[in-house]
Write a structure and sequence with these properties.
five-stranded mixed sheet, alpha+beta, 15 helices, single chain
Length: about 500
């Protein structure tokens, strides 16, 4: 080795200048290539909104199908994420003719699930449906076509309808426009609009910054503020009345009307979210050197008002994932109203319910016995079947419906995220725990006397299955949850042939 180093030094010292330049260029190119390659690997690693960033980039050239004047890259098909779950094909590998893991048999699933479905903890009314995602075939059913109160699992229907109507890249705008004697803050129905410090897609502070700049550019440092909530109609209060689980519905609100610093779960809510949001906006403008005459008042923006400033929500895909992971009622109701607006229906509870039902029907789902009453599942008048939910989940994995993929990526992961974070623990000696941990992904549903679970699982042979279990009349919510977790774990652990 010392001799080799001596030879290399002598060669370099005696080499012509042009040859040394060539060597330097090749070496620099090699280093640059290594850096680029390392960067590509790093970019493919992190997950963003349920998908790898590299997958998002590859789909940037696909034309957008939804959104309000937003031409950013649409969210990609998630086939690379789902392909291993159904075999060597895509998410529905059977359609492409490529090999897939063997599907469980009806008899095998019946033997595994029927005894668990007889658990007394599930109450007198119970139904079940398990669907093979590859073929769409129902592999197991028990009263699967009867409609029951789904509780929060109805958010799956709300999410699918919104994505179908608007596309995953749609964003909701909050704007400031010129008014007859001042400016108008116009609510678009974005439940994520926030006044809190820190980065956010839709920040009231950012909107105030842009508004103040626009006004000062016009030589205006004093104005009147009006706020417009006309995009929504009908009753603002949910049928359950004032409640810590949901704010009055308004096209203009900040931080979901929460009166504390929480961002999920129950919290005291504002009685008038729009007025509170407008009051905060007025304060922010004053801090930025724009004086507001009097208190903000409700009103309407002129038909051809000039836009001064705008902030936009995260893309609909991210809203869907947040609504499903955290079972966020406010976002779910907003998604239902956005679906109504896209469908030409009034943005009310009634109009949203009709729009969601119509979209589910257009997706080919069994809605003849279904009744959608709200977007969140807080209304006990909601009625859907286990078959509808399981088929919806299978449809969300269909390569022909890439716009629905956030329905799957937003599902909580057993033992790790969202409403399943504290479930499937190893401390459960009854068998509902660790076997399904990290394998089951599902949306939960809970009302007094009602417990439900609907999601996906990869079985022991690597086959992706969709399931839905609905129960009512339960007297022990913890016992019902454990029984449902055992059912989902059985689906995941089953070869069942």
């Amino acid at each position: 080795m010392p001799e080799a180093r001596t030879w290399q030094f002598r060669w370099w010292r005696n080499a012509p200048r042009e040859q040394r330049r060539t060597v330097r260029f090749v070496a620099a190119s090699a280093v640059t290539g290594l850096v680029v390659a390392t960067g590509a690997v790093a970019a493919a690693g992190p997950w963003d909104s349920g998908q790898r960033k590299a997958e998002r980039a590859r789909a940037a050239a696909v034309p957008a199908t939804g959104g309000e004047r937003h031409a950013g890259p649409r969210h990609p098909r998630a086939a690379p994420v789902l392909a291993p779950l159904g075999g060597q094909g895509g998410a529905t590998g059977g359609k492409s003719g490529r090999a897939a893991a063997p599907a469980p048999t009806r008899d095998g699933l019946t033997g595994a699930l029927k005894p668990l479905l007889e658990d007394d903890g599930l109450g007198p009314d119970r139904s079940a449906s398990v669907v093979d995602v590859v073929t769409g075939e129902q592999l197991y059913g028990a009263d699967q076509d009867t409609a029951y109160t789904p509780a929060s699992t109805v958010k799956l229907a709300t999410a699918a309808a919104a994505l179908s109507a608007l596309g995953p890249d749609h964003r909701i705008d909050t704007t400031v426009v010129t008014g007859k004697d001042g400016i108008v803050l116009v609510g678009g129905g974005d439940p994520t609009l926030t006044v809190r410090q820190g980065t956010a897609d839709a920040s009231l502070r950012t909107l105030a910054d842009a508004t103040a700049r626009a006004l000062k550019a016009r030589g205006t440092t004093r104005t009147k503020l009006t706020y417009d909530t006309s995009r929504y109609s009908g009753p603002a209060q949910h049928v359950i009345g004032p409640n810590e689980n949901i704010a009055p519905m308004s096209a203009l609100m900040i931080d979901e009307g929460r009166q504390d610093d929480s961002d999920r779960g129950p919290a005291e809510r504002s009685a008038d979210p729009a007025a509170d949001a407008a009051g905060e906006f007025a304060s922010l403008l004053r801090e930025r050197g724009v004086e507001i005459d009097g208190d903000p008042s409700g009103g309407s923006a002129p038909a051809k008002a000039e836009r001064l400033a705008v902030v936009s929500s995260p893309p609909l895909s991210a809203l869907v994932e947040r609504a499903l992971t955290n079972s966020d009622n406010d976002i779910a109701e907003a998604l239902a109203r956005q679906t109504a607006l896209a469908s030409g229906q009034p943005a009310s509870f009634e109009g949203a319910a009709k729009a969601v039902t119509d979209r589910l029907t257009k997706l080919g789902l069994p809605t003849s016995r279904a009744r959608i009453a709200d977007g969140s599942g807080l209304d006990r008048a909601d009625q859907v079947s286990a078959a509808l939910l399981s088929q919806l989940l299978a449809r969300a994995a269909d390569p022909d419906h890439p716009e629905l993929r956030p329905v799957l990526t937003g599902l909580p992961v057993a033992g790790f995220s969202g409403t399943l974070r504290s479930r499937y623990g190893s401390e459960d000696g009854a068998g509902a725990g660790s076997a399904g941990r990290g394998v089951v992904r599902a949306k939960t549903g809970t009302l007094t006397g009602v417990n439900s679970l609907a999601g996906t699982a990869v079985d022991a042979d690597g086959r992706l299955l969709a399931f839905a279990f609905l129960t009512s009349g339960t007297g022990d919510p913890d016992g019902a949850q454990r029984a449902l977790d055992r059912l989902a774990t059985a689906v995941a652990g089953c070869g069942c042939r």
